[in-house]
Amino acid sequence: xxxxxxxxxxxxxxxxxxxxxxxxxxxxxxxxxxxxxxxxxxxxxxxxxxxxxxxxxxxxxxxxxxxxxxxxxxxxxxxxxxxxxxxxxxxxxxxxxxxxxxxxxxxxxxxxxxxxxxxxxxxxxxxxxxxxxxxxxxxxxxxxxxxxxxxxxxxxxxxxxxxxxxxxxxxxxxxxxxxxxxxxxxxxxxxxxxxxxxxxxxxxxxxxxxxxxxxxxxxxxxxxxxxxxxxxxxxxxxxxxxxxxxxxxxxxxxxxxxxxxxxxxxxxxxxxxxxxxxxxxxxxxxxxxxxxxxxxxxxxxxxxxxxxxxxxxxxxxxxxxxxxxxxxxxxxxxxxxxxxxxxxxxxxxxxxxxxxxxxxxxxxxxxxxxxxxxxxxxxxxxxxxxxxxxxxxxxxxxxxxxxxxxxxxxxxxxxxxxxxxxxxxxxxxxxxxxxxxxxxxxxxxxxxxxxxxxxxxxxxxxxxxxxxxxxxxxxxxxxxxxxxxxxxxxxxxxxxxxxxxxxxxxxxxx
Length: 510
Prior knowledge:
Elements: H1 7-23, H2 33-41, H3 43-52, H4 57-74, H5 86-91, E1 94-99, E2 105-110, H6 121-138, E3 144-149, H7 160-171, E4 180-183, H8 190-198, H9 202-206, E5 208-211, H10 247-254, H11 285-291, E6 300-303, E7 307-309, E8 311-312, E9 321-329, E10 335-341, E11 347-350, E12 353-356, E13 361-368, E14 373-374, E15 381-388, H12 398-407, E16 416-423, E17 433-434, E18 437-438, H13 452-509
Parallel strand pairs: 2-3, 3-4, 4-5, 7-16
Antiparallel strand pairs: 1-2, 6-9, 8-9, 9-13, 10-12, 10-15, 11-13, 14-17, 15-16, 17-18
């Protein structure tokens, strides 16, 4: 869990950057005006650099500098429909559509539409940058979820150079991905993706999830899932140009330090996230004031009511441990809920807060973070809090909802609390277990980043895997060809034999 930087730390980073501009041979004016203005005025933008580097000021400054240099050289701010390959864009290899359960935009990569070596890599990456820039601009720099749809893919669709380039591109954005979702990965490519994971930063590996039709609903609800993923959205990609914004809108977005989400309309292929398939109804102020008074009425029904049981996720490649809690609104009015844990670095709670209409239900998932251990006698606890939903809270704005809960005292008479314990009955042996991995206290420092030598070794391993896979496919086709030739030859021989027997029979008659 990243630490929230203070305003003083943000100002310090800004001052250090401007001072560095004065000292370096690259003048400040060499950077793009949009990037410079963002550094000078947008606190939220600088916060992301500090969070990304765990508040390390030196690393944050260097990352900020390196990224602005890259953005200037790459021309990230100038990428638009007039200077990218429209044939690549219209093919729909990558496009944004809908949102995950946390309300973050899905940037979808259709792997089966890309064939290795068929496209100019630089131009294809410009298309990827175009979509990243567009989504960030139209969502006020909010993070997104990368969804890799691997359905129908084969070795010819897996381009390791493309994947490595995409990883490098995302490293150049300080706004972390909410998730990296890999859907329907063919078993043949498991080994390749294990190598890919070693190329990724540890924080990215933590949010990488392998999905199948059974568990995809845990991350993307029915309304936001494409029909090909078993959802209700029958959308077929068709490129829609970006809607131009007025100068006042651009200025407003640039100076927006609160990360307010701005939703597309249907023409731009985005949908709003749904809370239990329906956003809570807004009440008149008089009603809102009435139901904000203290009450003994139970506002939530929680199932299970006392213990969250963690079990291994079925078909999970990583052997992850997960539990779930169903929350039902039993109040006559819309409510908002928030879940806290005694071990915030150990568990990921999704969603950790939200809102519900009367009678509606949502499922909250508790997933053990990689590298943590559990036991059958775990003392980890969770606190579910709920309170009536104020009228002025926009439930689609996660920051506004988080700010409301932060300002609300936990001992407020309007807040009801439910406590849950977390256990893992599967782990009844003497050994502890990490999430998906056997654990011992002498594992050493295996979590260090790989160095350049390791990268070269991995690159060679990738080439060997590709060579062996291609050889296997070639042998398969060769075997099939030999089988067909032998079959034709045998058919011909048998036919000749039958004709010879008929000829001998006719000779004997005469």
